[in-house]
Protein 1
Amino acid sequence: MSNLCWNFRCLMFLLSLLEILTIVVFHPAKIKAEISKSAEISTTNTTSSEASSTSIPQNNNSLINPLVSQIGSSVPDVTSSNDISDDATMSQVNSVSQLTDVQPSDWAFVALQSLVERYGAIAGYPNLTFQGNRAMTRYEFAAGLNAVLNRLNELIAAGTSDLVRKEDLETLQKLQSQFTTELASLRGRVDALETRTATIQAQQFSTTTKLTGEVETVIGGILAGNNVVTKRPAPRNITFQDRVRLLLNTSFTGTDELRTTLTAGNIASLGGTRSGLFGTTDGRTSDNASPAFPNNQLYLAGLRYRFQPTKTTQVNIFTQSDGVFEIGLTGPINPYFEGSAANAISRYARRNMVYDYGDTGPGIAVLQKLGKQFELGLAYTAINGNNPAPNNGLFSGRYVALGQLSYFTPNKNFRLALTYANTYSPPNTTGLTGTNFGPVIGSNLANSTVPGTGTVGNLYGVQALYRFSPKFAVNGWVGYSAHRYLGRGDADVWDWALGLAFPDLFKEGSLGGLFVGMEPKLTSLSANVDLGAGAGRVDKDTSLHIEGFYQYKLSDNIAITPGVIWITAPNSDDSNPDSVVAWLRTTFRF
């Protein structure tokens, strides 16, 4: 080969090819043994996968090497990455400059330029990348080598003496002939692998159930504050409490999900409407145990079936859940404060009051994508839908019907949601929270009704988030609720909030948060309506909810979150001293 007078690009190509051929010539036995071993491992993995029917065999590569695009039957793709779909095909490029991830400064630029522009032996991915740093499999190597040799055959047949000397091409042709058996064997293995993979893809799914869970422990208690009903200091006891959630996610088609949620815990609520340690829901934490079950008794907290009738439509049918949260209407707008056993400490910091009217129950929720930047969410929950008694059931008892239109910029740095909900509570019906109406946060008057009177609410909310950078975001909301006590009169309730989030604070995966807002406050009331403070009496002062937390990520499975909740003028009454709650939460996920 030393007497060849090729230009530099041809030399780079030939040197690369000769290096490959040298390996094949001098180590054929080792190569054949390794290939046979690889095939046996692949067959074993395939058989195991077919037996379990839960996954497709995978290798360490994301996509087929571009060289393979030149052969008639390409290697099937068994994984995907870089946002390229499984059925992506490679497109021929005419110039190396079309490959966006190849630069003139790259050490192999000249070789790639020759292979693309002179020999046409390289193709790019659909997103016009070459991905030169990705490893290739033995099958890809064989297919790529075959593609190059086929190109050399074409040059020989065409008599392209201006590119290379014909005698040297004939030498390469002899090498190809000598390894015809090995190449044919590898080609057969590739074809067989393609057939087996197609079968696996067609039959890969069977009913599977995946178990995930979280264990939350809390050390915390009241540092300051009075009971707003008795006007006496609230107990200053520090406690160690827990909550456990087990989620069984079952799929029957591969695109649906049956979720069963089991919960047990003993985290006591610090307050309720005219009950609990504070005598108000101001500053209520988000992880309280259900008052309907004994402490640490395992119970069914959620049962929901989700499926997609179309690619842009998600339907959730649930017998025990809350559709607003099932379809994630709150999370995308408030991602740094909303979460289960994570993020914010208080219930109010997680979401606008418009989402919080009513308890869990049966119902239906639908999420419909409207293009790439809009989503429409609809949910109907019947709070006592499983109760056949009068003033209960799916359509004659308590319900919440909610609709939300959400907008996202393409990069989702700005998000906006407009929410409307209509809710009704029959007279003298109560839920798990002890109130038959209200947001279950905020002042006692905001959560009160007239005894013996049905109540209707029309709720309006505006929520927004803007992410200034990957490490700083601002979110906020305003909520308004028009209450009507049927046959008695009307009332207005308002709330607002502003949150600052600091993702990756001090450590990647950690999160800092600062929050200030006004929990639901009764601002107007018909003169003849008495909600417990006197006819026409409303909340006289403004209470502020101030909260800070830092969620430190110890590992992918463990996070520690210290936090403080500070409530000024609890129950919207300046005569009540400020209350302070300290919380140290540890979350284990598996």
Protein 2
Amino acid sequence: MKNIDSRIQELETELSKLPVPSDTSSGTRRGFQTRGIEENEDLWVEIVLPQPASLDQVVLVPLLAKGAQGQIPGYGFPQRFLLQAFDADGDTHILIDETAENFPNPGIFPVSAACPRGVLISRIRLTATETWKRNAPQVLALAEMIALSGNRNLATKAEVRASSSREMYPTWSRSNLIDMETPLGLPVLPLPTETMSGWHSDVATRRDTQKQVTLDLGTTYKVDELRFVPARPARLSATAQYGFPSRFIVEASTQEDFSDSWLIHDQRESSLPPPGQNLLQFDLAGKPLRFVRMTSYRLRERSADYVLALGEMQAYVGNRNIAIGKTTIADESLENDRWGRVGLTDGLTAGGKLIELPKWFRGLEKRRRLENEKALLTAGRAKLLEESEKTLVFGSIVATCSFAVFAGLYVLRSKRQRRLDRELHRERLARDLHDELGSNLGSIALISSFAKEGEGDEAQMRRDLIEIEEVARESADSMRDMVELLGGGHAGAANDWLAVTNGLASRLLRDVKLDCRLPERPLLIEPDLETRREIYLFCKEVLHNIAKHADANFVSFHLKPKANGLRIEISDDGCGFDPSTVSQGHGLSNLQKRAAGLRASLSLESLPGRGTFISLDVPRGRRWRKPKTR
């Protein structure tokens, strides 16, 4: 979506720099069309140039016709066709061959073909091998056929021939094929700022008021072509007819007083159909002139009044418009920021800059390609969005179902794991009870059996009872510690495991000076139950060994929380031993096994007569949790 949007933005930037077709038939002359096709008939139309000429390209401009359902762009443009050029020797040159498959309807955009270089072309023919079909008669129709040589259209004086022609002047006619009236409008390149609209006379109250405007080229030129550009104020639509006279004459002269004038065009006897936004071209064949004058005999009505207005006057010598910046002579002129004498020859008109025909057609064809690409991207974007929404909905359903399944599996697995943990705790608790209480109860039973036999004296019996009392008290203390350690005494008792460990040290080392430093408050991250149990039993075994074997006067017992776990340090100033020669009976094997079960690092340092130092670094496990507030 991001790539598509980026490309669409690039296309919109490029399109903003290209000419825009008018997209309306602003004049009254639509174009040319044949009659309906008959059996075994080929529909064709051709133009015969006044004399063979070297052409750069041929341009076909489609029609914009009116139908029952509205405007029909590309009306009558053939689905399959052949465009041919015939040279002065009668040889045929194929310019476009679209007879193999259907040609996409171009709408109103021009279709152009390059001509062979250095070949003098006398006529151009378009043949429809498969006609346009759209709930209408099968006809061949065009708005214009243009033969470009440089910047000039040489087809304006051509003869038009056709297999047949629908003659309904001014709408349909053979002559409409070469009159430069198309739905494309004027050859204008849009500009971001407003431009002058042209030249404008004073307002008249009578239709037959004569008004004149004269172009002074400054010196005499052999002019090949004269063009008039109709005016259109920026606020009016392209279909509005503004200021172009319906009856007029165009004269040329080499003298300012027109003493040697000659007529270029005489439109006094009949009214000219409104030209709309289309060029009016007059072929002068290189006649010398300096002054060109238009004189109106019947003005076109504006709104209860009458004016003479022109957008631009152009004079071509070869491929160059020499009228740019030349002088405009007029007895009357509306002068403001939109109209003025300079507006007749500034190369601008309402909406933009006037450009040459080849550049205009290239720009329009590029616009057609870019708009087609943009349309495909927009359609693809909509389809992608639709597919993405479907995928999102389907994916959400699948994800929800998958989450429910995995959540259910996770719950079942968690329950199973908790059940296994409980079983494991039961087994370990049973083993601890067996090792601790079973041994003590066995000692009580053995001492009791000796006392029962009555073979000893009274003093011996008293000693046996004292020993039984000590063993029973030790068993009760161990049972109480185990219950407190496992959290079975009261809610939140799991947080008291440090106090249980502290009490253990105090009992086992009550006859020794003890430096016991355990955290007074619950740790930020508490070990899980199994880890607490193993730490308790590890400490109990070490402290029991010190009480039984070390003969120490001072013992240090420290438990320190670390960022990644806990550290336990236990040291004494007792007799010490050589770890390399010690037997298994001292319980070192049990300590190593418990350290391995905790994945902890065990360190033991001892020398005979120098005491013993033991440290255990317990890493933080994944089941460690923040303590619950009591």
Protein 3
Amino acid sequence: MVNRIEKSGLQVDPRLVDFIEGQALPGTGISDDAFWAGFDRMVQDLGQENQALLDTREALQSKIDAWHIAHRDQPHDHEAYTAFLQEIGYLLPEGDAFEIETDNVDPEIAQVPGPQLVVPITNARYALNAANARWGSLYDGLYGTDAMGSTPPAGGYNKGHGARVVARARVFLDEAFPIEGLSHADARRYHVRDGALLVDDLPLMQPEKFAGYRGNPKAPDAVLLVNHGLHVELVFDRAHFIGSHDQAGLADVRLESAMSAIMDCEDSVACVDAEDKVQAYGNWLGLMKGDLTEEVAKGGQSFTRRLNTDVAYVAPDGSDLTLKTRALMLVRNVGHLMTNPAVLDADGKEVFEGLMDALITTTIAMHDLQRAGGNSVHGSVYVVKPKMHGPEEVAFAVRSFDMVEDILGLPRNTVKIGIMDEERRTSVNLKQCIRAAKSRVAFINTGFLDRTGDEIHTSMEAGPFSRKDFIKRKGWIGAYENRNVDIGLECGLQGRAQIGKGMWAMPDMMNAMLEQKIEHPKSGANCAWVPSPTAATLHALHYHKVNVFAVQDKLRAGGRRAHVDGILDIPLATFRKWTPAQIANEVENNAQGILGYVVRWIDHGVGCSKVPDIHDVGLMEDRATCRISAQHVANWLHHDIVTEAQVMQALQKMAAVVDRQNANDPTYTPMAPGFDGIAFQAACDLVFKGRVQPSGYTEPVLHARRLELKSSLGA
């Protein structure tokens, strides 16, 4: 039982009080009393409205369920369905043309397309790695992965594989920075004369791509190039084991990689109480103050990891040039749904966690706003806001941050909002959602997994859905992805805000990523999510090949490619002539993914990790992947494609598979043969109670079961 501390009418866990008053507030100019009084005012003024928005979600869902039930044995009438959604206020009029008014947006968002990382803020090592992933070695990325078709042979450095890496890097340099009459593969000397880069005394075909150098201009330590806004550094060192065997002394090719990184307080973490929230907030504070460190053991040695410092160059005109070495950091708050026991209101009810995140993460970011050379050079705070349903909920988020700024004395619109287009009610009303945040929006994106989970839940009563692989091939997904970009461009996001695309979920499959993920910049997206710093470096190659702003110009001239009708094309199974083996395979695949993720979430508090799938391929899993799998099985259960007994049999069978996959983890608690652990019960809840979960979200079940486990351990 927590002995809470009363603060302006709020009942607060002492661990949160200690963090706020002892660490977060000192240095901001905000007094303890002013903070808690403002927090209480937010809870009183906005709490009921928050609940009303959630009630609206449920009311609309009930009406949609009833419509589908009434029309279940009839051919789907698309026009009647659309008219019905308009009648109940789900599908809103689009409104007149407008452009966003967001200002003071940092160049990493507004001007330079590139990769974006998403990492759990509760893991300090991952957070530091992501922040420092602004630059990465192309040599390392190509050598240590399957990017060129295979990984290096076991043992020490393989000269043959290394030679292929060097050759591949030279091809990239020829493509991005061609030399007049020479290939980089044949170059012997890079030097600077009269403000120009010369390679064997020959100039670049585009001399303006030379951005600077370090060291002696006659024999630079490094040469800085730039293409499509992204920098590339050629590192020269004839004492290096690579440079010593290179005719030009080129030891490495370093790419500007993760331009931005989302420090995630939501889907990739397991924060269920004050202890967890303080860990998350504490790491965010360290990033914003610039003093976060983590002791890391690697290769038998221990060292301290900290944020990288800026690097100085000499510009072509001889002036000083300093480049940031850290990704621009955004913070993802939780959505409007969940509450958290860290703070209770005057009636003893848990406060909405989204309000808590809004105030506390912005308060923490004030440390960055007050220091030179920090995260934002334009004095902005970037908050990604997930799981909003339609423009009313976006407008509520805007009012929340209005209030935060008033409490903290910040200029209006200091806080910029990222709108995640991952719920259908947002997708079909995207233009109005952007309008609701037109002075704050700095980011929109698409996320296939959450978006599919919401699609299944919203249309649960319409019938059984296709198998997951076939859902991706239906027309609605293309309409959703294209319309997001088209509307973003119509609303003036080009040059002011990001248009983003989703995650590459297979961190060990870089060759496939290089083949496929180029489609994201080709789609007109400024950024796309990657699962690791190495993936960011390799994905950066795509932004050198594709001029995203040129693509966006063509798209703007061509008009909209997709409309609401396409998005409302529900991806139901058409024929449903599945064999028993196909049904069993689909259910077992879903069950294995759910169990592999949930067992780590519940037992270890790990919200995102690389989880082996049913074929032992490592996939990045978070709550979005769990949501689609749980909702898919719940849908098939509801429509009698499978029975509860069959699903339970699949869960038990896959529990044994997951146990095997984790057999080498000494901290792992097996689920089989008892199947009576809290983690296994949580997975069962997600499936068997999936139809009645709010919007099909996994959070209510996961939070309750994690708290149950922590309570059983006396935590």
